[in-house]
Amino acid sequence: MSHRLFSSRALWPLWWAALILTTLLAALAGQPTIARAEATEGDTLYWPGVYLPFVTVQHEETAAPVILSTPALTATVGVSYTYLVEASGLPTPTLSLPAGPPDMTLDAASGLIDWMPADEGVYTVTVQAANGINPDAVQSFAVEVSDAPLPARVWDPRLDLRGATLVEAAVTPGQGYWRLVEARWYNTVESQGRVNIYVDTLDRDGNRQMGVPLRFGWPGGFAITYTSAKSGELYAADFPMCNLAPIYSAQPDDGAPADRVDGMGLGEIDSPDYAHHTSYGLIWRWTIAPR
């Protein structure tokens, strides 16, 4: 009777030891559990479905990139457009901007797209995420840019009765300028003894702008003052009046076009010839003229 010197049953303790050792080494290396082992002879051990002597170990999974975020599809001329691109995949994908307006930028580290639209129109943008696992993730979209409507203007009708007038700035389409958005007159009771022209200047988002020069004029002279923080106060600057209306004018004076208010001064509506203590409140906002 013939015998095989090394049958699979005779060697199974060694194979089993190899299987255990491989599992331990895989665990120490941070690998998942053993997937399968194979033998040239096709002999099996006592554990069904396990073949020796070749043992293979599953490797870390990979995943193609996917873009998870959704962009805004509208923008406004002169207003910053931002879009934070979020993508997943293994390995972590790298972001790029294959197509978009020339002045649009993408910070590959943070995924932030930043753009200041200068003209109306529809602009095509393409974002790509790649990590070496096919296919790359591609997101294409169109952003429609339009002009912002002019900020509403509040004009106290009592200003007309006091002889105040609005002189609007001469601007060209797309030009930035100081637009008067609010003008109020305060009578003797409302002024509570004050005799000032109060002024505030706002940026496009309605935030107070500090350090803006203001020009207060009268026949034969003028004065310059500047806006400041004045936290908690309604206005950012003021100018004291000492003459009857109509004499004083006011406007921002930083070199940009600006609306101007003329014909201000002391006096009540029903007694304009007496220097009653009255005041004015004026607010300008930085605005882009429609195209």
What are the main properties of this structure?
single chain; disordered N terminus; five-stranded mixed beta sheet; 3 helices; mainly beta
Summarize the model shown.
With 291 residues, this protein is mostly beta strands.
Describe this structure in words.
The chain has 291 residues and is mainly beta. It has 3 helices and 21 strands. The strands form 6 sheets. Strands 12-14-21-15-18 form a 5-stranded mixed sheet. The chain has a 5-stranded antiparallel sheet with strand order 13-20-19-16-17, with no helix packed on it. Strands 4-11-10-7 form a 4-stranded mixed sheet, with no helix packed on it. It starts with 7 loop residues before the first helix and ends with a strand. The N terminus is likely disordered.
Order of helices and strands: HEEEEEEEEEEEEHEEHEEEEEEE
Order of strands side by side in the largest beta sheet? 12-14-21-15-18
Assembly status: single chain
Structural class: mainly beta
Main sheet? Answer: 5 strands, mixed
Q: How large is the share of residues in beta strands?
A: 35-45%
- How far apart the termini lie comes to 104 Å
Low-confidence stretches: 1-8, 31-47, 50-58
Overall spatial form: elongated
Q: What gyration radius follows from the Cα positions, in whole Å?
A: 38 Å
The number of E-state strands comes to 21
Helix share bin? under 10%
Average pLDDT over all residues: 85
List the total number of helices: 3
